[in-house]
Amino acid sequence: MDLSGRVVKRVRRTSGENEWVLFIQQDLVATLQVWRDICYRLLNPANGAVHALPERLAEEHANMDIRQRDYSTVIIFGLVASTGEYKVLRVLDCISYREQLCEVFTLDGSNSSRWRGKKAPPGRLEMRQSGVVINGIVYLFSAPRRIASFDLETEEWRATLQGPQINLVGDAARMLNNQMAALSGSLVVVHYHHPSMDLWFLIDLEKQLWVKQHSINVNLSVMHPVKLNICPLLVLNDGRIVTYIDIGTRGLLRIYNPRTSTYTDVAEIGTRDGIGLYTGNLLSSANGAN
Question: What pTM value is reported for the model?
Answer without folding.
Answer: 0.87
